[in-house]
């Protein structure tokens, strides 16, 4: 970890750039032409598309037929899209709203108060403005705050903002509720693989799993056609539960070679499969490339809650899913090892997890 002690260059807060009334963005944020968002090209089919929206209310009932229908919807979305939205999920709408707005309040605090929580590449915990540590990298138009929620050994309230005054309490409750929701989705994913409902969770370490929160702040951008709020990537962890800004779209998901802008439903969570579940399921479930676009008129705040395997357990395809016709696609690797691999490089589409595939599995 010695090479991850500090950032390779001085950190510039994107929010400060945005609030300085500049008319052009610095070159460090200008993406290569092939990575820029196509904001001016209108394709009616793509414009009207959206990721699946699934009503989970039936999971709380005794209706077995409805249970089976919802499970099938989740299975198909996880297999073919890697993304879906969930409604009636059990998390109180007012808690969702307060969590988002408490973090918005944090990002509008004076800079010196936020700087007290500045992060480093060693753990990423705290207030940050870049991900990878490659010197000279083209940066994203966003700031963020990253914190550990589980295991309890990593949970340190001193690294959580003390202001707004209710933020720690709100995020504690929010985390408890979202962990429950992730557990429900994990049971469905496990069952639909033909396993016991707790099998997938057990591969994560049972009750000894990890969870963390990344709050994304995307300031207004004077040239949104030249940059991205977050570069294309797939999530390295297990399962992501995203609380979007339902008033401002920004998340784009890659589907059949095209970028679909997600239209968030009010008080819905956006769920996506991470690389660890792709590995465990031997690619029966897919983690999918996604990115974030920004705009010149509105800032945007979103909360990404990551539900991850225990950091030191080797993750590899579940043995029951490995057959002569479909051998194990990935070698064992702990989540700690995989995170270090990702951090050194920063967001790079799907190339991270795909580069791990065993050559003997892919020669055909």
Automatic annotation (TrEMBL):
<dbReference type="InterPro" id="IPR026992">
    <property type="entry name" value="DIOX_N"/>
</dbReference>
<dbReference type="InterPro" id="IPR044861">
    <property type="entry name" value="IPNS-like_FE2OG_OXY"/>
</dbReference>
<dbReference type="GO" id="GO:0051213">
    <property type="term" value="F:dioxygenase activity"/>
</dbReference>
<dbReference type="InterPro" id="IPR050295">
    <property type="entry name" value="Plant_2OG-oxidoreductases"/>
</dbReference>
<dbReference type="InterPro" id="IPR027443">
    <property type="entry name" value="IPNS-like_sf"/>
</dbReference>
<dbReference type="GO" id="GO:1900150">
    <property type="term" value="P:regulation of defense response to fungus"/>
</dbReference>
<dbReference type="Pfam" id="PF14226">
    <property type="entry name" value="DIOX_N"/>
</dbReference>
<keyword id="KW-1184">Jasmonic acid signaling pathway</keyword>
<keyword id="KW-0479">Metal-binding</keyword>
<keyword id="KW-0408">Iron</keyword>
<dbReference type="GO" id="GO:0120091">
    <property type="term" value="F:jasmonic acid hydrolase"/>
</dbReference>
<dbReference type="InterPro" id="IPR005123">
    <property type="entry name" value="Oxoglu/Fe-dep_dioxygenase_dom"/>
</dbReference>
<comment type="similarity">
    <text>Belongs to the iron/ascorbate-dependent oxidoreductase family.</text>
</comment>
<keyword id="KW-0611">Plant defense</keyword>
<feature type="domain" description="Fe2OG dioxygenase">
    <location>
        <begin position="208"/>
        <end position="309"/>
    </location>
</feature>
<dbReference type="GO" id="GO:0046872">
    <property type="term" value="F:metal ion binding"/>
</dbReference>
<dbReference type="Pfam" id="PF03171">
    <property type="entry name" value="2OG-FeII_Oxy"/>
</dbReference>
<protein>
    <recommendedName>
        <fullName>Fe2OG dioxygenase domain-containing protein</fullName>
    </recommendedName>
</protein>
<dbReference type="GO" id="GO:0006952">
    <property type="term" value="P:defense response"/>
</dbReference>
<keyword id="KW-0223">Dioxygenase</keyword>
<dbReference type="GO" id="GO:1900366">
    <property type="term" value="P:negative regulation of defense response to insect"/>
</dbReference>
<dbReference type="GO" id="GO:2000022">
    <property type="term" value="P:regulation of jasmonic acid mediated signaling pathway"/>
</dbReference>
<keyword id="KW-0560">Oxidoreductase</keyword>
């Amino acid at each position: 970890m010695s090479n991850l002690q500090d950032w390779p260059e001085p950190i510039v807060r994107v929010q400060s750039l945005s609030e300085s009334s500049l008319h052009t963005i610095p070159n460090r944020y200008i993406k290569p032409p092939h990575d820029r968002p196509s904001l001016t090209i209108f394709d009616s089919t793509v414009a009207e598309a959206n990721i699946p929206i699934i009503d989970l209310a039936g999971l709380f009932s005794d209706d077995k037929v409805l249970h089976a229908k919802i499970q099938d919807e989740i299975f198909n979305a996880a297999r073919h899209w890697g993304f879906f939205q969930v409604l009636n999920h059990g998390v109180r709408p007012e808690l969702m709203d307060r969590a988002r707005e408490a973090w918005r309040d944090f990002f509008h605090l004076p800079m010196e108060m936020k700087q007290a929580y500045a992060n480093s590449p060693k753990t990423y915990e705290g207030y940050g403005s870049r991900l990878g540590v490659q010197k000279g990298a083209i940066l994203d138009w966003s700031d963020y705050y990253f914190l550990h929620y589980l295991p309890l050994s990593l949970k340190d309230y001193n690294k959580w903002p003390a202001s707004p005054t209710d933020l720690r309490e709100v995020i504690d409750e929010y985390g408890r509720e979202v962990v429950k929701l992730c557990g429900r989705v994990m049971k469905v994913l496990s069952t639909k693989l033909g396993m016991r409902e707790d099998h997938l969770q057990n591969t994560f370490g049972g009750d000894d799993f990890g969870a963390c929160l990344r709050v994304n702040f995307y300031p207004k951008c004077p040239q949104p056609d030249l940059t991205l709020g977050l570069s294309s990537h797939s999530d390295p962890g297990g399962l992501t539960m995203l609380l979007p800004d339902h008033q401002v779209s920004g998340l784009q998901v890659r589907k059949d070679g095209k970028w679909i802008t997600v239209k968030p439903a009010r008080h819905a969570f956006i769920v996506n499969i991470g690389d660890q579940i792709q590995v465990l399921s031997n690619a029966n479930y897919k983690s999918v490339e996604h990115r974030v676009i920004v705009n010149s008129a509105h800032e945007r705040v979103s909360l990404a809650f990551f539900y991850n395997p225990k950091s030191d357990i080797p993750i590899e395809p579940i043995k029951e899913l490995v057959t002569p016709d479909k051998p194990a696609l990935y070698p064992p690797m702990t989540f700690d090892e995989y995170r270090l691999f990702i951090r050194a490089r920063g967001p790079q589409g799907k190339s991270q997890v795909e580069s791990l595939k065993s050559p003997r599995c892919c020669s055909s």
